[in-house]
């Protein structure tokens, strides 16, 4: 089960049937929070539809190399994705790097790989900073939330 406070719109999770869904809206009901999804054709080649489920039925998706590839990360010595912007005609580039950290056993008895996070910043061609982010990532929605907080954009599936 996922705490609703960890989720934001466009996060990917699985429902009680193991289907990957994207959260498109959140509403509060008398029995708790409900999350809705619509654009399921994104994953299952079905017609688009809207549906709502109670959040107690959702599970997080393990962050794996397959998911990193689907989000556009490239494998070098680490998994890397770049994002940036231009301020006052100067390109500012950020590189988010993930490395395998350790395996841990969840309360469900599942082995998960955690990922260490490093952020590098460049102005033009010059590196101006490197930061180790004190957060081990385990799940897809955690990566999506981190990417959004760093870039201001949603981390989109490309594959």
Strand order of the largest sheet: 6-7-8-9-10
Tally of DSSP helical segments: 3
Q: Helicity level, as a percent range?
A: 10-25%
Question: How many structural domains?
Answer: 2
Features of this protein?
159 residues; 3-stranded antiparallel sheet
Describe this structure in words.
By secondary structure, the chain is mainly beta. The protein has two domains: 4-57, no CATH class; 65-151, no CATH class. The chain contains three helices and ten strands, in the order ββββαβαβββββα. A five-stranded antiparallel beta sheet has the order 6-7-8-9-10. A hairpin with a 2-residue loop joins strand 9 and strand 10 (126-137). The radius of gyration is 17 Å and the shape is globular.
Quick recap of the structure?
The chain has 159 residues and is mainly beta. 14% of the residues lie in helices and 46% in strands.
List the helices and strands and how they pair.
Layout: E1 12-14, E2 20-22, E3 25-29, E4 32-37, H1 41-44, E5 51-54, H2 65-70, E6 74-75, E7 79-87, E8 90-105, E9 111-123, E10 126-137, H3 140-151
Antiparallel strand pairs: 1-2, 3-4, 4-5, 6-7, 7-8, 8-9, 9-10
